[in-house]
Every structure is written in C-alpha cells, then in structure tokens.
Fold:
Amino acid sequence: MYELCQKRARKRAIPATPTIVKRKVPRRRRNSDYRSREYLSEKEVGEVIAAAAKQGRHGLRDSALILIAYRHGLRVSELVSLRWDQIDFAQGLVHVARLKNGMASVHPLRGPELRALRRFAAGGCEHRLCVRE
Structure:
C-alpha cells in the first residue's frame, strides 16, 4: 500500500513527505512609521464631505452627517442614533446623548451645519437622521 502511494505521488509530482517550514509573521510597525499624524485636517475633511455628497443616492445625508460628526466629535453610534427632535433649528442647537458614560450635552450648530441639515430635512426624512436599509 505504501509503495502504491509513493508511485502515485511521483506521478503527480507531489512530494511523498510534506515539508514543514517554520515561518514568522512580521511585526506590525508603529502608526507613526506609516503616517505623520492620526487625524484629518479641515481641508481633508472638506474633501471627504464633497466626495460623499457626489456618491450614491444618500449623498446629501452622508455629507451632512460627516460634517456633524466632525464638528461635534460624535461617535458613530451617537451619530446614527440622532433623531430630528434632538435638533432645534430655531435656536441652532443639537442635543447629544453621549454614550460610554458620557454626559448628555447641548451643542450649538453653526451656519454650514444648519444649512446642510435643512437641505437634508427638506427631502422628507424619517424619524431618525440615519435609517438603516
């Protein structure tokens, strides 16, 4: 039986005994070796917002949410849980319910944020700003 396996292995050019090679996984370099900083500049964020506005059918929503997240330092979970009743257009405020033991707070909305949210709201939206599909 062993000899038969040996012959078949030779015919298919498969080694009779597998070779074992001990390989090392290369260590990951520090982030500072890859890039000089860990954040986006205001210009880069503007480019991301402009690109998001041109992509897909929810470009207006995406660009508005990126702007809000950037200006107010929101986590993704805080951003997607925002509801329209948390935004006060008359006074230009947004009520943020912080997660991870953070305290709820009220943030002022500046001109570009208000304009982006008003354009987004004019499209007839759901209860939440971000609805999963």
